[in-house]
Amino acid sequence: MEIPPILVEIAKRYVPETVQAQLLNAKVLFQTFIENNDEFIQKIASYIPEGKLNQFSLVAAFSSASVLLFIHFLKMRTEAKLAKCNIKTVQNSILYNWPVFGHSLGFETDPVDFFRQLNAAIEWMKASDPDALYAYAMFGPKPAIIPVRPEGAEPILNSQTHIRKGMFYRLFEDWLGTGLLTSHGSKWKTRRRLLTPAFHKTVLTEFVEVMNEKAAKMMVILDEKIKTEKKINMLWPITLCALDIIVETAMGAESDIQFEENNYYAQAIFDWMELTQIRHKSVWYWPDWIWALSPIGRQQNKNVDKMHHFTEKVIMERWEHYKELKEELGDDFEATYFAEKCDSRGRMAFLDTLLKCLDQNEIDLQGIREEVDTFMFEGHDTTAAAMTWAIQEIGQHPEVLKKLNEEVELVFGDSDRPATMEDIDKLIYLEAVTKETLRKFPSVPLFAREIDEDQEVIRNGKKFTIPKGAIYTIPCYKLHRDERHWKDPEKFDPNRWLDGGAAETRYAYSYFPFSAGPRNCIGQRVIYILTNFNDISKFANLTAKIMLSHLVRNFSWTSLRVTNEIPVIAEIITRPKDGIDVILERRNA
Ligand code: HEM
């Protein structure tokens, strides 16, 4: 679709440059929609009787105008209410507020630019009003409320009332159904209670063995790589290793995904992520029926079928094994199965805890699939992203790598034995490195809640009201870098987390990479229980620590790019655009 040159000329002369950019953005969005849905549009057109096009267009134009006017009226009413609630929006030059559609059309389509824009909007709001706790953006008549200071996150995260996830999470349901991440109300409460024992110490101790085994395999792969490649992009090997770990720990399925370049399950997961991110950014794909009819929606269905097929097969095989053993062992079953006979290698998996619930009619097979899929989704990419950023920061700070080398030498000496839980507890500096990495790069950059009741917040004598119906969107990445809470927030400084460091007395909501309150990450219990730490500030990511300790014991490396110059993509997960390149060398080669 071409815009008449006269309009282009008028726009160039009289419309400010920032608004011109937003107009171009809207044009790209519209064109992408037309291109991707050509078939669908043709189909709609085929229903219009021949010769009736003009009449049809008139009725359609009139009805559309009425609907748009109504939406615009609702939008204006909401914005007037927000002004009374002391919540403002950003200047149009940062993010344009369109009639009817609000800010939704003004968001950058490129994920790196989108994230920069969001962060710039938060900075602008803080600079323009030092007392501001929140900013809003409109998605048509629906407001998204964004805390711009950590103090604004506390009332919602801490609440037992606001536990419903934001509407964006619906886009994960084609794969995850309504499992722990996406469900709410009594279903969520029941599932959370059922799943908590899956993180019991006996289950988790088995994981250390799996993690060591998979990390050792990654060392073999890296050894092979450095023979032929000068610079190595670490994102891919780390992601595959994390996926290998979660396939075995969640499902108990023997997995060698790291060595199988074309593994169909891994491929389906990566394709699903990519297409979900496209859907996330494209409002027109949100209604399920448009998505289902669109070519990429159909492609996505195939990915979902593949992933469900894989999980269902594993669940059924393990369930049959469970039932057979139950019959064979009678009264001894419980003690034997959970102690040593879960599979031929005597290993427990999250799935085994769920099978017991199935046996006691507390969950059905579909419920089990939802939860296993949820662990797959939440468990691998989060860890892989954190690891990747840690490797980047370590490779850019030789003094950090030196301290890590000294620490692993002290704990492991020359031995290449697997890491035990006791070893992991002793790696205090490595723990500080993982915490600082998750401060600068929390794996989940944004998370959201749907507000079911008005929530009042009083701060420095000023009252803010987060209205019912708002999507409350928490920019974890930006709040972790708040200059009122962290000195030199852009600096990577693991010393903050050592004894006497600034993090010891920090405000709790200035750092929450695992979220906080009732809907926090159930995966963090892995660390919590195993290490017997009573203080939440002492957790570290077990998987990341085991994988990183293997890496530090075997290799040294230098990062080829400066961290703060790497473009960050923050859609579902915070990751470096194009991964990270390092020069990797065998230690003591
Ligand atoms: C570095 C590693 C990880 C980070 C940074 C992380 C972070 C988070 C965050 C921020 C949330 C809240 C998300 C939201 O409200 O939308 C969450 C939820 C969750 N995480 Fe993790 N996670 C990690 C690892 C894991 C692992 C290893 C598992 C499972 C094995 C896991 C399972 C879950 C589940 C099931 C939820 C939903 C909990 C609920 O709503 O009740 N996560 N995680």
From TrEMBL:
<dbReference type="GO" id="GO:0016705">
    <property type="term" value="F:oxidoreductase activity, acting on paired donors, with incorporation or reduction of molecular oxygen"/>
</dbReference>
<keyword id="KW-0479">Metal-binding</keyword>
<keyword id="KW-0256">Endoplasmic reticulum</keyword>
<dbReference type="InterPro" id="IPR036396">
    <property type="entry name" value="Cyt_P450_sf"/>
</dbReference>
<dbReference type="Pfam" id="PF00067">
    <property type="entry name" value="p450"/>
</dbReference>
<dbReference type="InterPro" id="IPR001128">
    <property type="entry name" value="Cyt_P450"/>
</dbReference>
<keyword id="KW-0560">Oxidoreductase</keyword>
<keyword id="KW-0349">Heme</keyword>
<keyword id="KW-0503">Monooxygenase</keyword>
<dbReference type="GO" id="GO:0004497">
    <property type="term" value="F:monooxygenase activity"/>
</dbReference>
<dbReference type="GO" id="GO:0005506">
    <property type="term" value="F:iron ion binding"/>
</dbReference>
<protein>
    <submittedName>
        <fullName>Uncharacterized protein</fullName>
    </submittedName>
</protein>
<keyword id="KW-0408">Iron</keyword>
<keyword id="KW-0472">Membrane</keyword>
<dbReference type="GO" id="GO:0020037">
    <property type="term" value="F:heme binding"/>
</dbReference>
<comment type="similarity">
    <text>Belongs to the cytochrome P450 family.</text>
</comment>
<dbReference type="GO" id="GO:0005789">
    <property type="term" value="C:endoplasmic reticulum membrane"/>
</dbReference>
<dbReference type="InterPro" id="IPR050196">
    <property type="entry name" value="Cytochrome_P450_Monoox"/>
</dbReference>
<dbReference type="InterPro" id="IPR002401">
    <property type="entry name" value="Cyt_P450_E_grp-I"/>
</dbReference>
<dbReference type="InterPro" id="IPR017972">
    <property type="entry name" value="Cyt_P450_CS"/>
</dbReference>
<feature type="binding site" description="axial binding residue">
    <location>
        <position position="521"/>
    </location>
    <ligand>
        <name>heme</name>
    </ligand>
</feature>
